[in-house]
């Protein structure tokens, strides 16, 4: 579990940071006022990241920063002033970044920076560079930002690693490499992975005119000229990952049903199309429809009906957490289950039907019981329409059989 330590001796500033953290961070947070409190917390807890004030009443020369770094806690520094000497001193100490606290916006920036770094944890990055020294420097900088880092000595090795590790989300590639240069690598990568799936930052030495434009035209998201400053590298990586995550958030939002949080019909159909093309004989589809839902809307209003649908979605998620679950209609849900054994799928749906019927749904402090009908079909048909039609026909049979039952399509 991620946990953050924030060290600040000003009551006003700490109050501001507490408020902003509650809005932007969904992790455990501990606050300390002094070096002594920080020591005690570090002895009792493991921290993913620390946001610390450079000067404290009992540590006026940055001792708290040295302490958190000595415990291998990536550290972002808050400071009221900065000069070239103190800046260089902090970077040599190994801090991730520093934030000058001169207005309220700086505190918001600091908290958002912490949020960005926490999101990096577990994210995989690949460095493609034929220079061992360059790779080592960039690896150290990326690991401070909580990335899991891999290295490649040339473009061909990098391409093989990207094909073998689709989880890699960031590629930093030098231009001049043997076997396959940075341009060829970017072009080859973009044939299979778009800008919304993999972020690429091109690199090259100073004096290489026009390379930045070429890199970006070939498909890179950004470009850095070597040698680069620590802060420039940090900001470029953070901005690039922010863009990638923003696209991912937008796509996720577009794929979700607003009321229940389940996947929507559009995403479900797109996923089913892929299943039918690649592994049609390894899945089973179940369509579930709430019985007499119109009567619930009539008695409790649409807000009451919405509460039932939301609670039904929670039950589906908890019962079919290994499956793809979606809301495909007003009160109709779909579950894509791994395996093509209809008896196993029927048993799973029967168990859920019983659990559903025994659940108390709460509307305006009133408890009511609902039932549902289920239709099941194998995903071995030619098209999505054929599979949906088979499951829908089985669902219709369940409705005709007085509802609250499970039917299986044998066609």
Automatic annotation (TrEMBL):
Any one GO cellular component localisation term in the record: plasma membrane
GO biological process, one term: phosphorelay signal transduction system
Domain of life: Bacteria
Record-linked InterPro entries: CheY-like_superfamily, Diguanylate_Cyclase, GGDEF_dom, Nucleotide_cyclase, Rev_trsase/Diguanyl_cyclase, Sig_transdc_resp-reg_receiver
One family name in Pfam for this protein: Response_reg
Residues annotated as domain Response regulatory: 3-116, 124-241
Record carries keyword DNA-binding: no
EC numbers: 2.7.7.65
GO MF: diguanylate cyclase activity
Modified residues (4-aspartylphosphate): 53, 174
Keywords: Phosphoprotein
Named cofactor requirement(s): Mg(2+)
Protein name (database record): diguanylate cyclase
């Amino acid at each position: 579990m991620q946990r953050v330590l924030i060290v600040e001796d000003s009551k006003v500033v700490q109050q501001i940071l507490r408020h902003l953290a509650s809005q932007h961070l969904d992790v455990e947070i501990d606050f300390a006022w002094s070096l002594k409190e920080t020591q005690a917390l570090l002895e009792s807890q493991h921290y993913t990241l620390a946001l610390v004030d450079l000067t404290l009443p009992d540590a006026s020369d940055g001792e708290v920063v040295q302490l958190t770094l000595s415990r291998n806690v990536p550290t972002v520094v808050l400071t009221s002033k900065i000069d070239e000497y103190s800046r260089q001193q902090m970077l040599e100490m190994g801090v991730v970044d520093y934030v000058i606290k001169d207005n309220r916006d700086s505190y918001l920036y600091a908290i958002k920076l912490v949020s960005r770094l926490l999101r990096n944890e577990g994210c995989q990055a690949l460095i493609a560079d034929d220079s061992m020294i360059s790779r080592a420097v960039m690896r150290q900088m990326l690991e401070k930002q909580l990335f899991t880092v891999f290295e490649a000595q040339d473009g061909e090795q990098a391409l093989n690693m990207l094909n073998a590790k689709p989880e890699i989300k960031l590629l930093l590639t030098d231009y001049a490499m043997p076997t396959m240069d940075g341009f060829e690598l970017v072009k080859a990568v973009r044939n299979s992975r778009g800008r919304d799936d993999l972020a690429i930052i091109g690199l090259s030495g100073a004096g290489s005119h026009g390379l930045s434009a070429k890199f970006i035209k070939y498909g890179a998201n950004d470009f850095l000229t070597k040698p680069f400053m620590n802060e420039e590298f940090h900001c470029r990586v953070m901005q690039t990952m922010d863009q990638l995550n923003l696209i991912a958030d937008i796509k996720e939002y577009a794929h979700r049903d607003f009321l229940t949080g389940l996947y929507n019909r559009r995403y479900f159909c797109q996923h089913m199309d892929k299943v039918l093309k690649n592994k049609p004989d390894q899945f089973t589809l179940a369509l579930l429809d709430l019985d007499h839902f119109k009567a619930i809307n009539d008695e409790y209003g649409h807000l009451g009906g919405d509460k039932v649908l939301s609670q039904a979605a929670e039950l589906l998620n908890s019962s079919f957490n290994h499956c793809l679950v979606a809301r495909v209609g007003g009160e109709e849900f779909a579950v894509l289950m791994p395996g093509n054994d209809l008896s196993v799928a029927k048993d799973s749906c029967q168990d859920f039907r019983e659990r559903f019927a025994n659940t108390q749904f709460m509307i305006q402090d009133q408890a009511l019981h609902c039932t549902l009908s289920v239709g099941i079909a194998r995903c071995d048909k030619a098209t999505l329409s054929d599979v949906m039609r088979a499951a829908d026909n089985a669902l219709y049979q369940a409705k005709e059989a007085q509802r609250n039952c499970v039917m299986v399509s044998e066609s």
